């Protein structure tokens, strides 16, 4: 109970930031679309680059983002197939982003630091890169396909800098190159901006209470994929690896499980806003999932981790 209460207190600033974003959008006419562009093309690639540069890269560690990326893709494609059958309002293309990834950065990093400490946080961040790569490749492509041709969607994916930031950081890290000391404070500040702006843009997308739930079918499918399918897949891998494969230790299993129970990613709103793909629906469902996670995450952690 004490651990759950400490976690709740740790999460409260995130909700205050969402409220500040709503105030900025409602009363200051702040443009969520402009901030979305800054996040996607400047801040997120910078965070990916600095995170990979700081990670101790080994073949086993490098495989972790690929493993998480594969999990995200499987969840996304399965639920997209369902969404295309039940959603007729043009929002089906946003489902893969809603269920495949999660708010692993803005939301997950503070939780991981609280649960795992600095050493466990490094493992979590490496795993988290798999969700970032999914968002900026397969997830973006599937969302863009709702409005663009295959060629145009692929061109838009090719323009996303996060994929190139990841590849460049891996190459430099393996070559023994590190970030110059003069630039370390810059990347630290960009990580702070990543968290603050990412949560605020959720609030900016909500300008009326009526827009929170939107299409109940969309919200229900997104919640099922994010809070049922993803955790079940993570637990299945945990059991399989612990009892049969023996590839990873407990810290990795816990990191992947934490990724699976984070709420819908704020970057879903960022990408939906940029593509004009049901942005209000994405923002409302993302906010509802974030509110739901306030109670869901402590309960799941207490149950699975024995906190």
TrEMBL record:
<feature type="transmembrane region" description="Helical">
    <location>
        <begin position="61"/>
        <end position="82"/>
    </location>
</feature>
<feature type="transmembrane region" description="Helical">
    <location>
        <begin position="193"/>
        <end position="213"/>
    </location>
</feature>
<dbReference type="InterPro" id="IPR004776">
    <property type="entry name" value="Mem_transp_PIN-like"/>
</dbReference>
<feature type="transmembrane region" description="Helical">
    <location>
        <begin position="163"/>
        <end position="187"/>
    </location>
</feature>
<feature type="transmembrane region" description="Helical">
    <location>
        <begin position="252"/>
        <end position="275"/>
    </location>
</feature>
<feature type="transmembrane region" description="Helical">
    <location>
        <begin position="6"/>
        <end position="23"/>
    </location>
</feature>
<keyword id="KW-0812">Transmembrane</keyword>
<keyword id="KW-0472">Membrane</keyword>
<dbReference type="GO" id="GO:0055085">
    <property type="term" value="P:transmembrane transport"/>
</dbReference>
<feature type="transmembrane region" description="Helical">
    <location>
        <begin position="35"/>
        <end position="55"/>
    </location>
</feature>
<feature type="transmembrane region" description="Helical">
    <location>
        <begin position="122"/>
        <end position="143"/>
    </location>
</feature>
<keyword id="KW-1003">Cell membrane</keyword>
<protein>
    <submittedName>
        <fullName>Putative permease</fullName>
    </submittedName>
</protein>
<feature type="transmembrane region" description="Helical">
    <location>
        <begin position="94"/>
        <end position="116"/>
    </location>
</feature>
<feature type="transmembrane region" description="Helical">
    <location>
        <begin position="220"/>
        <end position="240"/>
    </location>
</feature>
<keyword id="KW-1133">Transmembrane helix</keyword>
<dbReference type="GO" id="GO:0016020">
    <property type="term" value="C:membrane"/>
</dbReference>
<feature type="transmembrane region" description="Helical">
    <location>
        <begin position="287"/>
        <end position="306"/>
    </location>
</feature>
<dbReference type="Pfam" id="PF03547">
    <property type="entry name" value="Mem_trans"/>
</dbReference>
<keyword id="KW-0813">Transport</keyword>
């Amino acid at each position: 109970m004490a651990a759950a209460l400490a976690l709740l207190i740790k999460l409260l600033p995130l909700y205050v930031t969402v409220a500040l974003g709503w105030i900025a959008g409602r009363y200051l006419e702040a443009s969520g679309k402009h901030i979305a562009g800054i996040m996607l093309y400047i801040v997120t690639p910078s965070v990916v680059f600095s995170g990979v540069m700081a990670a101790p890269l080994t073949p086993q560690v490098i495989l972790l983002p690929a493993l998480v990326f594969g999990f995200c893709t499987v969840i996304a494609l399965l639920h997209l197939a369902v969404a295309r059958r039940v959603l007729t309002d043009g929002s089906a293309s946003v489902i893969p982003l809603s269920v495949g990834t999660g708010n692993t950065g803005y939301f997950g990093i503070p939780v991981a630091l609280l649960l795992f400490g600095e050493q466990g946080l490094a493992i979590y961040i490496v795993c988290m890169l798999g969700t970032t790569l999914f968002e900026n490749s397969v997830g973006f492509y599937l969302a863009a396909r709702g409005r663009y041709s295959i060629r145009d969607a692929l061109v838009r994916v090719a323009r996303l800098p996060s994929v190139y930031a990841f590849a460049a950081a891996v190459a430099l890290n393996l070559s023994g190159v590190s970030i110059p000391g003069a630039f370390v404070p810059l990347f630290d500040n960009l990580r702070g901006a990543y968290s603050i702006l990412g949560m605020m843009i959720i609030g900016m997308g909500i300008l009326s209470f009526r827009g929170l739930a939107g299409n109940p079918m969309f919200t229900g499918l997104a919640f099922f994929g994010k809070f049922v399918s993803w955790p079940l897949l993570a637990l299945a891998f945990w059991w399989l690896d612990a009892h049969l494969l023996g590839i990873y230790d407990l810290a990795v299993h816990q990191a992947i499980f934490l990724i699976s129970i984070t709420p819908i990613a704020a970057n879903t709103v960022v990408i939906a806003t940029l593509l004009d793909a049901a942005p209000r629906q994405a923002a409302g469902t993302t906010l509802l999932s974030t509110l739901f996670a306030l109670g869901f995450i402590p309960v799941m952690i207490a149950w699975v981790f024995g906190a």
